[in-house]
Amino acid sequence: MELADLVVFKAVVEEGGIVRAARKLNRVQSSVTMRVKQLEAAVGAQLFFRDRQRLFLSPPGEQLLAYADKLLRLAEEAKSAVSGAPPSGVLRLGALESTTASRLPDVLARYHRAYPQVRVELRTGTNDALTAAVAERRLDAAFVAEIPATRDLGALPLFPERLIVISARDHRPIQRPHDVDGDSVIAFPNGCAYRRVLQRWLGDARCASVRVLELGSYHAIVACVASGTGIALVPESVLGTVRHAHVAKHALPKVYANVTTPLVWRSGEQTPAVAALRQMLPMSPATTRRAARRAA
After folding, report:
1. Residue 2 backbone zone (phi > 0: left; psi -120 to 50: alpha; other: beta)
2. Burial profile 6-28: b = 16 or more Cβ within 10 angstroms, e = fewer
3. Which one of 17, 23, 150, 262 is least enclosed by Cβ atoms within 10 Å?
4. pLDDT tens by residue, 55-67
5. What confidence tens digit (pLDDT) does each residue in 187-226 have?
6. Backbone angles phi, psi at 234, to 5 degrees
7. pTM
8. Which CATH architecture group holds 3-82?
9. DSSP character for 283?
10. What is the pLDDT of residues 142-187, one digit of tens each?
11. Residue 7 CA to chain centroid, in angstroms?
């Protein structure tokens, strides 16, 4: 089994077939087909099922894909370490929509200037979806809302956020959960960590009866709140990215309001591109204080 075979194997998986993989790799189709057959012979298992014009991974193929990701990334790390060359290739990065809008523009601009050989592929999603994508090696790293409990993922706390409740401007003041009785909640789908914060603040009894309108963007959420459709919980920094955010802001108790956005990656599998990203990120004040105490 050669690394070149694994490169072809991954391309076929990602493109869903021989034709697209050949186009991506700038190879003839017969060459890609031959590489796949050689790899199947080397591992002694069928790696794909064919359904019409598309290929799907078999169970042995699923197993091999995890190892292929790891081997190819280790090879890239070894090459970069030995050559001293700057990071290159693809950085598959995930982020919450709020982080993407309010925190990442400057970070990604500086990263692009410093490492022009790295192509950043950014995907947004909920906390749970992004964490799962990193754990399953579909993303190299992600900016999420909660530090995962598992030791399989490393985490670096970064951006302090203040969560607030927003409502239409003519809404009565919101200080306690009963002040939103009868209101609908506008939120991202299940898997959103901030939605869980709002549910904890409201309490189980209210959550059981509350009406929820699920939307996929903060611009839509803020617009619906401004129109009087319901209330929502958002990071305060997001409102600065939404034009004409005509909403009222209501403070939450600190135990609910103060959160920190971490960057997460797979422990022991940090790629050169992820390491370079970590080095240019500002640590949260709490992380900085802990580092200073360890150095003292």
Report:
1. beta
2. bbbbbbbbebebbebbbeebebe
3. 150
4. 888 898 888 888 8
5. 999 999 999 999 999 998 888 888 999 998 999 999 999 9
6. -140, 155
7. 0.73
8. Orthogonal Bundle (1.10)
9. P
10. 999 999 998 899 999 999 999 999 999 999 999 999 999 999 999 9
11. 24
CATH architecture of 88-160+261-295: 3-Layer(aba) Sandwich (3.40)
Domain boundaries, the chain: 3-82, 88-160+261-295, 161-258
Total residue count of the chain as it appears in this document: 296
Encoded tokens for 179: 């002040």
Nearest residue to 178 (alpha-carbon basis) of 214, 149, 203, 141: 203
How does the average pLDDT of the chain come out, rounded? 87
Topology match between the domains 3-82 and 88-160+261-295: no
Query: Under CATH, what is the fold of the domain 161-258?
Result: D-Maltodextrin-Binding Protein; domain 2 (3.40.190)
**Residue 109: strand, helix, or coil:** helix
182: left (phi over 0), alpha (psi -120 to 50) or beta: left
- In order of 12, 17, 55, the CA distances from 50 in angstroms are 12, 9, 5
CA angle 101, 282, 78 (to 5 degrees): 100
Both structure tokens of 232: 């929502």
- Compute CA distances 290 → 12, 17, 155, 260, 265, whole Å: 45, 49, 14, 15, 20
In the block, tokens 């598309």 appear at: 54
